[in-house]
Amino acid sequence: MAGAFILGSARCGSTLVSDLIRLHPELLSLSEVFSTAGARAFPPGQLSARDFWRGLAEPTRIGSLAGNPLRAPREFLYGRQEGNRHDPFRCPPLLQVALPHLTDAPDDLFDRLAAEVAAHPRQGVADHYRQLFGAMAMARNRRLWVERSGGSLVATRTLARLFPEARLVLLTRSGPETVLSMSDYPATRLAARMWQRMRGFGIDLLDPDSHYGRGRIWRALQALSIAMPVAPMLDRPADPLLLARFWSAMMIRGARALATLPRARWHHLSYEALIAAPEPELAALALYLGVSAPAGWLREAGARPAQRPSRADRLAPAERARLIAACAPGEAALAALIRG
Fold first, then answer.
1. Do 75 and 67 form a contact (C-beta atoms < 8 A)?
2. 89, 141, 208, 244: which could join 157 in a potential S-S bond, CB 3.0 to 4.6 Å?
């Protein structure tokens, strides 16, 4: 079964896109599967079913600290239903967002998927995901699955190589607006700070071979996390200029990866365009994904996006100018890519 990936930074409107895709009768919306798996998202080599499922089912310290009802109340979905069988503050990664996004009985679905994965042969991680996502789509009578993880743009090269048959959707949003939204999100503060710290050791966590779950460094970081002051990095406000540099670096690397692919391999979706004219943008997205665009879906989904006041426009002029300048390299890389 074919699939697709929404590629973007954190806080670029991808949660909204996941919600709109979930309303489509032919699409299975998979939200934050890779990002919650974190350091275990893309292990190399052949994996047993047990090792693959461990990455989706075994809580990690950093994942539990970053994703819970206190630090990520809007994004963290588990625990909103009654009768939950797991502790919301230390639940399996797959239960944090992905399964509650699909059903009001996420624990039951989790158990069914555990049994499904247990029958997988030893194989590469991409084949495990294909088998799992395909089974989930078929069970819900969907033609195509669409995975969306925050920050997935840095994984563009990995996803394009592991899933050569998959469709890719580049989701963009104004750099300053994205950065100001990132400043509210604990997980992004942690990611930007870790990127800054590791650069001092000559390690780029946004490198195509070192992004979350791909490089060997993540296993070491996971082990070291016990001694790391993770909570302060999550909770302390971050310098917007650091977040802007982080965002720009992510855009530049993602644009480079997409530029190596045939233009027909990916579709551009602008958050601003989606907000301004939802139905035409959704119809174009459906066409690219190879599914229909039912009038009922266009009406229902098209009513969801809402215009929000610009946060960047409310900044003092000097502060706004500095933020725009810090985002300029990323904006330029995206503009050059989209122009072709």
1. yes
2. 208
